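fyi for ur records
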Amino acid sequence: MPNHKSYQSYLIESLKDPAEAAAYLDAVLEDGDLEHILLALKNVTEARKSLIEASNEPNSDLKNYYQLLSQEEVPRLPVIARLLNELGLKLSVTVKEEQVA
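which gave:
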């Protein structure tokens, strides 16, 4: 039987790299779809959570954030900012590129 990973497991593995996670979230944020943004945050949180569990690192709130993202409720901006901080990431704002017609 061939050895292959599902896309989801490949994605979670790649999101363990902070640079990959940042690029992934940046691309999803650019899309602007709230449902996609929340799913992306959940995926990045899952990747980081698995790293923390493997290292037995104490005092992580990522399990709580992951559960929050799994619910139907949309977290407020301060919660998202704290989650990103816990993930080693941050929000930033840039000037939108002008579209050439």
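The mean pLDDT is 84. thats all i got for now
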